[in-house]
């Protein structure tokens, strides 16, 4: 008997299993709307032109080497990443109460933040603090906080299925009823999986209650710039909360907006009340990083850092990001128009009202099953689709498939 004989087989990660099934499908019209990665209109991965340019600069820079970075990461990357989130003129940055931790992608930033909160927030090694995540949310949110040791992870109202929009009444009610000092994970923009964000007025309502109820804000910012094409617009919620005096965490990912999926470039921005508190927080995060990955990788961080810290490259990058965002917005407009032209039952306004990479179509699990088995269009069981998987060549097939699923399957 193997010493591992009692280890159970874990279920596959749903989105990667979906991709594996897609690859095995031999149908020439197959479409993958599952995995969250940008694709061109030729349905190919896109290496951003600015990234190619910076990679060449790095190769030709004789001053660079492969020595260890500081435990908390490349300093110029961390500071630049925090400026992207909070704004170049952020008073919090000028007051030296903002710091960053280079992490392994947005997931790593979430995990380091969660580990710190479990160890030090609301009492030493407190696993009982409630952590609230939206219903629905990105599947990893629950697992990251559970694996960090939190025992009380709760959903808060978010998606209104009947109206295919934000359940702001339920969300605000959950905020009012949550125990003081609870942790709330908020999607800064382009909510995953629904693509539905609060309006600025609704964000203000959320902030008012969270401040009054003394709730902790943990932003997940995976799509800044990628959602609307504007870095500033997509960071509005974060900057508003900071302007209201919140101490908070922001988990940043540069996978989508730089196309650096496999480089795992992330940053955990910490906004504290004062510099002394920030210093103590970062000292504890350094200890957590030391026993987690010990030292971060340099390549992806150097690409992002060189881009963000050079005005010309920064401007070029913003143009690249805008190109991606505009293609997604175009696909939203076209899919809605085609469904309406087909006379597909129901309203499809939510397709263009939502924002970012994902759309919550409203398709039920049986309709999703029909799409996959009969039409070879692969999407998540929740009905979530990746808008980047749509192209000028496959959008008619996808629209017709949705039309058939809605009309044939209840």
Radius of gyration: 22 Å
Based on Cα principal axes, name the global outline: globular
Strand content: 5-15%
User: What's the mean pLDDT score?
Assistant: 94
What low-confidence regions span 5 or more consecutive residues with pLDDT below 50?
none
Number of strands: 13
Structural class from helices and strands? alpha/beta
Helix content: 40-55%
Spatial order of strands in the largest sheet: 2-10-9-8-7-3-4
Secondary-structure blueprint:
Blueprint: H1 14-24, E1 31-32, H2 49-60, H3 75-86, H4 91-94, E2 98-104, H5 105-120, E3 131-135, H6 139-147, E4 153-157, E5 159-160, E6 165-166, H7 168-177, E7 183-187, H8 200-212, E8 216-221, H9 231-234, H10 236-243, E9 248-253, H11 255-258, E10 265-271, H12 275-290, H13 299-308, H14 311-342, H15 350-353, E11 358-360, H16 365-375, E12 377-378, E13 384-386, H17 395-408
Parallel strand pairs: 1-12, 3-4, 3-7, 7-8, 8-9
Antiparallel strand pairs: 2-10, 5-6, 9-10, 11-13
Helix pairs in contact: 2-13, 2-14, 3-13, 5-6, 5-12, 7-8, 8-10, 14-17, 16-17
What does this entry look like structurally?
With 410 residues, this protein is of the alpha/beta class. The chain is built from 17 helices and 13 strands. A 7-stranded mixed sheet has the order 2-10-9-8-7-3-4, with helices on both faces. Strands 1-12 form a two-stranded parallel ribbon. Strand 7 (183-187), helix 8 (200-212) and strand 8 form a beta-alpha-beta unit.
